[in-house]
Specification:
By secondary structure, this protein is of the alpha+beta class. It has a single domain, classed as q2cbj1_9rhob like domain (Jelly Rolls, Sandwich), CATH 2.60.120. The protein is built from seven helices and 15 strands. The strands form four sheets. Strands 1, 2, 3, 6, 11, 13 and 15 form a seven-stranded antiparallel sheet that branches. The chain has a four-stranded antiparallel sheet with strand order 4-12-7-10, with no helix packed on it. It is globular. 44% of the residues are buried.
């Protein structure tokens, strides 16, 4: 049995998160468990299907049930519980790997926009972004706009950057890049951010890879739109009890049919590149 490391947030930490919409954590997993995750990822990376980009390793837990060892780790859930409460569902996961030299960019966006038809309200989701590699400005670390997490309608437009992983982005006039803060992380450090926080990242043209494992959670009082997207996405009860009448999947059962149903080019639980399904689909 692996003993999880529980991260206790201080009152100052919680006030910082409430005010800014994000927080960084110096260590998420016990060292041995983190090393096992990184080794597991490396095995997956070298066995990517032909033509698949490393950035597109979305919802890997649908076919790889071993990942629930980390997605449902008690220490990870202890961290999330301090932000969203004791009743927690696993919403999604994504290995976001930008290879050295030609790693793709992520335009300014808020996650809730892409998830608005999959979970209701999407604003209540949080993402734990666990660094597998050292990440900084040179290799395309995430940049966030502190305090930009107030829910509300935002203007989106088609992306103009050919290196972008999405085909929609926030209207540049609504974002001041000068206010953005880079989230520099070492391996096993993580950030946690609100679904409504404005963030993005530059392309990776450096000689170093940049990889993170994103683990996404919702309170169980958020409604999962199973009727509309249940053939392409599913959620899992991680801790506590259901409070929205949701349908939950069994983490011990792989669901490759969901991946097949998502369509070519679709990733990020609703975002897409040309050829994929429209934003908001699961």
């Amino acid at each position: 049995m692996t003993i999880a490391t529980s991260t206790r947030l201080t009152e100052e930490d919680l006030r910082f998160y409430e005010r800014n919409g994000y927080l960084t954590v110096p260590q998420l997993l016990p060292r041995e468990k983190f090393d096992q995750l990184r080794a597991h990822f490396e095995d997956k990376l070298v066995n990517l299907p032909g033509g698949m980009r490393p950035e597109d390793m979305d919802v890997p837990h649908f076919t790889d049930t071993r990942l629930f060892d980390w997605l449902l780790d008690p220490g990870v859930l202890d961290l999330v519980e301090q932000i969203i409460g004791p009743d927690i569902a696993l919403f999604s996961a994504h290995f976001f790997c930008k290879p050295a030299g030609d790693g793709k960019s992520v335009p300014w966006h808020d996650d809730a926009y892409y998830w608005r038809e999959t979970i209701i309200p999407a604003a209540k989701a949080v993402t734990v972004w666990l660094a597998l590699d050292p990440v900084d400005e040179e290799n395309g670390c995430m940049r966030v706009v502190p305090g930009s997490h107030a829910p509300g309608a935002r203007r989106y437009r088609p992306t103009t950057d050919p290196t972008s992983v999405f085909d929609e982005e926030l209207d540049p006039d609504s974002v001041d890049p000068a206010q953005a803060v880079p989230l520099r992380l070492r391996p096993n450090e993580c950030s946690i951010h609100s679904a409504t926080l404005v963030h993005g990242s530059e392309a990776n043209v450096s000689a170093r890879r940049r990889c993170g494992f994103t683990m996404r959670y919702i309170s169980t009082d958020v409604r999962f739109n199973h009727e509309e997207v249940g053939d392409r996405h599913q959620i899992y009860l991680a801790r506590g009890t259901d409070r929205a009448g949701n349908v939950y999947a069994d983490p011990s059962t792989p669901s490759p049919e969901l991946v097949a149903n998502r369509g070519a080019g679709q990733n990020y639980v609703g975002a897409r590149r040309p050829g994929g399904a429209r934003p908001g689909q699961g």
